[in-house]
Amino acid sequence: MKISAILTVALSMALLSNAAPLEKRRFGQEHSAFVEPLYQKMRDSAQGTNFAGQVGQMSGEAVNALLAAKPACRQQVVADHLVFFAKKMGADTTIADGKTREKDLINIAKQYRTAERNTNQDGKPSFLCGRKPSFKELNGIVQKQDPAATTKPDTPTDATNLDETFDPL
């Protein structure tokens, strides 16, 4: 009985040690050295204003939007929301440095929009968003791609789903 248990454990360990993933995956882009400071800058840009909670929530959603399983337009939607809140801060006369904060947050949104997204496979490009941004400041900006990608990025047919349209609520 003891020998069969020992053999079972030994065989299981041997099999597990030889197991390897079928595909190398490219994860971790949502916490890269490029984007991590942007999340803090997002929060800092609205600190002390009536928009701190909303922009803080967007900084959390910004992390989520870079995940491989998220829809192709989620990153652009977050950037659109950041520009929306930036313009609101710039127009708010109770914020002494509102125009400066507006400019700063728009620049942060532009930088964020260029951030590389995770992909389900190393060397595979992430999907592009198939709709125009809601604000002209983001026109022509798309996310960076995996430098090891050997194909061009696709635009999925579901990139314009209603749940991915800009809605500032």
Automatic annotation (TrEMBL):
| Region of interest: Disordered | 140-169
For this UniProt record, the keywords arranged alphabetically read as follows: Signal
Give the species. Paraglomus brasilianum
Q: Any keyword Signal?
A: yes
Q: What is this protein called?
A: 1541_t:CDS:1
Compositionally biased, Low complexity: which spans?
A: 146-160
* Signal peptide (UniProt feature, chain positions): 1-19
